[in-house]
Amino acid sequence: MNKQPIITEQVDVNKKIPCEKSPEEQLAIMEAYTRAFQSTPERFQREVRCLQVLYPSLFRRPVADDLILGRVDALPIGFGCVTSVGGVGHYCNFAKLAQFHDTLETDVLRKRVNALEHFWREHDTRSIYFRKALTDDTLGKFVDVNFPAIATARLSGMYLDYPQLMELGIGGLLQRIEQQHLKAQSDRDDAAIQLYQSFHDVLGILQQVIDRHIKIAAEEMANCADARRCKHLLLLMSELAAIRQDKPSTFLQGIELSWLYSLCAGVVNYGRMDDYLGDLLVADLQAGRLTERQAIDYIRSHYRLIEARKTTVNGRVVVGGKGRRDPKSADVYCRLAIQAIEENGDTEPQFTLRIYQGMDSAIWQQALAVIGTGLTYPILYNDDVNIPAVMNAMQVTQPEAEQYVPFGCGEFVLAGRSVGTPNTCINLLKILNISLSGGIDFWDNKAKSGGVVLVQPEQITCFDDVLSNYQRLLDYYINITAQAQALSYRVMNEQVGFLFTSILTADCVARGKALLDGGVRYLGGTNETYGNINAADSLAAIKQVIFTEKRYHYTTLIAALKADFQGYDDLKRALITATKFGNDDDAADDLAVMMHRYVCNGVRGAAKRVGLDSYLVVIINNQVNTEWGRATSASADGRHKGIYMSNANNPQSGADKNGPTAMLNSLLKLEAKYHAGSVQNIKFSKGLFNTRRPLVEALMHSYFERGGPQLMVSVVGKGELEAAYHNPENYPNLIVRVGGFSARFVNLDRDVQLEILNRTLND
After folding, report:
1. Do the beta carbons of residue 103 and residue 138 sit within 8 Å?
2. Of 526, 529, 530, 521, which Cα lies nearest the Cα of 488?
3. Which of 428, 410, 609 is nearest to 526 (CA)?
4. How does pLDDT run across 728-753, given as a tens digit for each residue?
5. How far is CA 415 from CA 317, 354, 493, 672, in A?
6. Which DSSP string corresponds to 347-367?
7. Using CB atoms within 10 A of its CB, is residue 328 exposed (0-12), middle (13-18) or buried (19+)?
8. Does residue 161 come out as left (phi exceeding 0), alpha (psi in the -120 to 50 range) or beta?
C-alpha cells in the first residue's frame, strides 16, 4: 500500500504576500471585469462572465511547502460576499483602488484607474445600497460610529452545504441541475432556465480552476529538486483530476474540493469540517493510505490557507456537536484538528468546538489543555442550550436547529439552509444617552431622535418616564434597522445571484431561484447590538441614585453628562458605586434582563413587517465596542465620553467585584432563547487555569449546565498583557480574545488593547 509522504511545512504565514500579478496585469483584469459587467445586462450571465475574468486567472502558485493547493488574490475590483476579501457582489474597494493608483508609475496607467473609479462609483453594489438606505441623520454607513445605528450590504456567514458537495461531487451537482433545467424547460419557466444555465456555467469555471491547479502542480514539479515534494505534487495532480467530475473518495480530495469551491464562492466560513471530512479521513486511516501524522499535516496546511486570507472575524471552522452524520468518524477529525490548531498557533481559523452532555470526554480534556496554553481556541458552544434556543428564536425543528453554526463574532445561521448576515448595528448606550437628553446626542450636539417625541429633561418626574423615553426611541431605531436589513437583500438581489453560493444552499436548485430571490429556505437577518450592559448599568444607576435615593435631581444628571462630569465628581462617584451588572445582584441584573428581552423581542417582532423569516439580535461585540465608545458621550454608569463600552454581555471592565461565579450567575440570567448568538469572555491566569484545573472545570460545568450558551476563554500569564502593552516588540505572538474573534495583541489599536487589559483576570 502506498502511504502519502510527510512534508514538513516551513512557511512564514505572517508575511504579507503581494499580488502575484504585475500592476499592469491587475489593471488589465479589472478593466476586463468592468467590460464584462458593462456588456452583459442580464444579472446571472453578467455574474458568470465577470467570474470567468477572475477565475482561474487570480489563483496563484503555492507558498513553500503547501500540502493543499488553493491561494487566490483579491483585486480592488471584483466579485465577493464580504468586505474582508474585497466586497459584496460586484464591488470596488475604493480605498484599495486609491492605493493601487498611487503605486502606478505613468499618467496613462493612472488615468485608466481613474476611469474605473468613476464607473464603479455608480455601480458598486454597496454604493448603490447606501444611496438608497442612508436618507437622514439617524442611520449611518458601516462603520460611521457618530450615528446611533449603522447599516451595510454584505453576505457574511454563508455556510455552504458541504456534505452535499462531498456526496455528489461536481458531476452529481451538474446532473441534478440538468434534471431541474429540463423541468424548467417543460414548464416554460424562462427565469429558471436562465438560472440553471448559469449554475452549469459556474461549475464549469470550478472545473477550469481544478485544471489550473493540476497545471500549477505540474509546473512546480518540473522545478522541484526534493523527491518527497515531487511525490506529493504528483499525488495532488492525481487527486485533483479525480474531483474534476467524481465525488471525493479520499481525505485530500475532500479538502481540495471543498476549499476550491469556497474560494470560488467567496465565502469565508467553512462549516462542520469533522462532519463532512471525517468519514473520508477515517477511510484513509483504516486503508493505510494515511497516517495520523500525515493527516495532521494536511489539516495544518489547510488551516494555514484559511489564516492567509486574513479575514479577522471570520474563517470559522466548526467541530463537535449534535446532528453529525457519523459522530465517531467526526470525532477522529476533531481530535486531530485540535492538535493541528495547537501546533499552528495562529489567529485563524476561528476554531469552534460544540460541546454537549455525553460527548467524548477525551476531546473536552484535549480542548482545555490547548486553551491552557494561552491560544484562546477552541471557542466553546453549548449545544444543550443553543439547539433549543435556535428552535425558539428561528422557529425551526430540532434537526434543523442541530445544524446551527456560529460565524463572524458569534452570530448563528443554519448551515446550508439560511441567510443571517448582520447588515445592521445599533448602539444601545448612545440611544439611551440621546433619550435621556430629550433627543440630543451630546457627543456632537446634534438632534438624533428621528422625529420621535420625547419627554424633555425638565419634565421627567420618575424612572418610568426615563424608561418610556428610551423604549420609544429604541422602537424607532429597531424599525429603521429592520427596514435597512431587508433593503440590503433587495439591492443585492437586483445586482447578483451569488451563483456558487446558491448551488449549495437549500432550496435554490429545487426552487429554480437564486439565493436572495426566493431561493434560500430561511431568509433571516441579524442586528448587532453594542453597549448593552453599559445601558443597563446606566438605567440601574439612574433608578438608584436619582429616583430611589433622590440624591441628585434628574436635570443635574443631564448637565453632568453634557459636561463629561467636569465639576460633578461627587455625582460621578455615586453613579460608579451604584449597583452594577455582573455581581449576581438582582437590583442591577433585573434591569439588564428586562432590557435584554425588550430589545430582542422588538427586533424579532420586526421580521414579518419587512418580509424576513427572522430578524434577531446578536450580542457579539468585537473591537466595535471600543470604536463606537470613542463616539459615545458620557453615560450614567459613570463612564467618561470616548471610553470603550463593555464587550457583549460581559460586565464593564472592573464592575464585577464579586468573583467569577457571581459574574457567570449574572450572565446566566440573560436567556439565550431570544437571540441568534451572544459572546461571553472570561479570562484566567495561567497559574489558576493550569494548576487548579478541577476548580476551573467545576466552574465551567456549572455555567454550562445552568444555561450558559458559550464561553471564550483567555488564559494569560500574570503581567503578560501589561508587559506586551508597554513592550510590544517582545510579544509578537501573544494571542488574545478581542470579542468574537482572536488577534495578536500587538496588532490591535492602543485603546482596544487597554480595554482587553482592563478586563477582570481571575487568579
Report:
1. no
2. 526
3. 410
4. 777 676 666 565 566 677 777 787 77
5. 12, 14, 21, 19
6. S-SEEEEEE-TTS-HHHHHHH
7. exposed
8. beta
d(CA 633, CA 641): 4
- In angstroms, rounded to a whole number, what is the distance separating the alpha carbons of residues 561 and 565? 6
Question: In DSSP terms, which residues pair with 526 in a beta bridge?
Answer: 616
Amino acid identity of 591? L
Contact status, residue 558 vs residue 436, Cβ threshold 8 Å: yes
Residue 11: pLDDT over 70: no
What count of other Cβ atoms lies within 10 Å of the Cβ of residue 366?
Answer: 18
Per-residue DSSP letter, 289 = S
What tens digit of pLDDT does each residue of 370-415 get? 999 999 899 999 999 999 999 999 999 999 999 999 998 889 999 9
Cross-strand partners of 72: 59
Grid cell of 4 as nine digits: 502519502
**C-alpha angle with apex 620: 619 to 621, nearest 5 degrees?**
110
CB neighbours of 448 closer than 8 A, spacing ≥ 6? 137, 138, 147, 148, 434, 439, 440, 441
Q: Parallel, antiparallel, or unpaired: how do β-strands 149-151 and 139-141 relate?
A: parallel
Which band of pLDDT confidence, cut at 50, 70 and 90, is reported for residue 5?
very low
| 555 within 8 A of 437, measured Cβ to Cβ | no
What integer pLDDT is reported at residue 621 of this predicted model? 65
Phi, psi for 120 (deg, rounded to 5): -75, -15
How far apart are the C-alpha atoms of 254 and 247, rounded to whole Å?
8
Residue pair 426/419 in contact by the 8 Å Cβ criterion = no
- Residue 546's contacts (CB-CB under 8 Å, 6 or more residues apart) are 463, 552, 553, 554, 557
Going by their DSSP bridges, the two strands 742-744 and 418-419 should be labelled as: unpaired
Residue with cell string 503581494: 18
Task: Write down the H helix ranges in 372-426.
Answer: 383-394, 398-401
- The whole-number average pLDDT for the span 411-426 is 97
569: helix, coil or strand? helix
Count Cβ atoms below 10 Å from residue 557 Cβ, excluding itself: 24
Q: Which three cell numbers stand for residue 303?
A: 488551516
Residue type, 720: E
Provide the CB-side half-sphere exposure for 58 (13 A, CA): 30
236 has pLDDT over 60: yes
What is residue 171's three-state secondary structure? helix
- In this structure, the number of other CB atoms found within 10 A of the CB of residue 608 comes to 12
Query: Number of helices and strands (H, E) in the chain?
Result: 29, 21
Q: What is the pLDDT of residue 752?
A: 73
Residue type, 520: V
Q: Among residues 70, 69, 71, 72, which one has the least CA distance to residue 233?
A: 69
Measured CA to CA in angstroms, residue 20 lies from 484, 626, 692 at distances of 38, 36, 50
Instruction: Tell me the pTM.
Output: 0.92
In this predicted model, what pLDDT tens digit does every residue of 626-684 receive, in sequence order? 899 999 999 999 999 999 999 888 888 788 888 888 888 999 999 999 999 988 888 88
Pick the range with the lowest mean pLDDT from 372-386, 683-697, 711-725: 711-725
- For 547, the 3-state DSSP assignment is helix
Predicted local distance difference test score (pLDDT) of residue 718? 57
With residues binned 3-state (H G I as helix, E B as strand, rest as coil), the percentages for the chain, rounded to 5, are 55, 10, 35
Element (H, E) at 756: helix 750-757
Percent of the chain with pLDDT over 70: 94
Cβ atoms of 731 and 746 within 8 Å: the answer is yes
